[in-house]
Structure formats: structure tokens, C-alpha cells
Amino acid sequence: MKKIAVFFKEPEIYGYPLNEDEYLHSYTELNNEIHRNGAELYVVRSQSSYQGNGIFSNSWIFGPKGLIERGEIRADVIYDKGNFISDNTVPVLNNTFINEICTNKWKTYEEFKSMCPLTIKINNERDFLSALKTIPTYKKVIKPIDGEEGKDVVIGDDKLLLQIPKKYPVAPQRDNQKYLLLKYP
Q1: What is the pTM for the complete model shown?
Q2: C-alpha distances in angstroms, 162 versus 130, 139, 155?
């Protein structure tokens, strides 16, 4: 049976993201789907637990009442959710390139311009004011360049966006109903 290891950076068994109910539930569902397809899902944590050749010194599986320690395993595939440093002996999903595209809004835009709303990388307040004039929609979106889970994303008109504190660089975007699932303030 194939062993899929999901790698998280933090060493604690219930460290992020499994310390949040929604993520624990999602990974439990992923585990169930993997089992239905004839494989096993193992949680592995911390780069220091990696011994090379797909071997981790510590692992856990999902049980009916939480995670159960399983000790050393050899993974056939590693699902990287924590900046895993690979020795290229087993396939890694979500490698560094994919992680960067998923978390760096500017890289996402550069790779997928045809699928993204107009996005501008801004490094200071002067350029921010100019970008507000360049983006043609009444409502605009402001995102941190490097972030995830919608943290620090603001949607609003110019008046609102001028009032909020910004940590540069940021990525203002046009409001495009095709891309937004959030409600406006």
C-alpha cells in the first residue's frame, strides 16, 4: 500500500494547521479519501525528522479519536505543506516552486496573468496612490504580496483603502466579480 506523508514544519503533533478544527477536519477527510483509493496518509513533522530516502523518524495516522503515533515510515510521496527540503529521492507535491506561486501574489500574477485580475506590485505610498488611479474599478482589492488564507486582504473604494494601514509591498487588484467570492464592507 502506498504511503503518502503530509509534511508540516512545526514539530508538535497538533501544531499548525492541525490545531485548528477546520484544518483537522479537512485532513481527516483527505485521509478517508486516500484510504478509499487504496493508500495510507501519514502526518510527518519537522525537517529534523527526515532521515533521507523518504524516511521519517516519526509519523502519525488519523484514528477515530485523533492522531496515533506510528514511528518511522518510508513515504512513497511527500505532500509538502511546510517548506520541506527534499533530497530528490521521492516525489514531492507542492514543491518550493508551487508553494511560492500559491503564497506570493505577485508570482501568481506573473505566472497566470490571463486568469488573474489586473494586479500591481507596490512598494511605497506614492506608488500606491498612483495605482489607485490606474485600476479602473470603483472597488479594489489590496493583498499582502506574501500571504495566504485571506489574511490582511481588504476590499473597498479608494477612500477606505487610503485609510487602512499598509505594510509594503502590497498588491492592489481590480475588483472583478468573476474572481471575488467575498462580500464588500
Answers
A1: 0.63
A2: 12, 12, 12
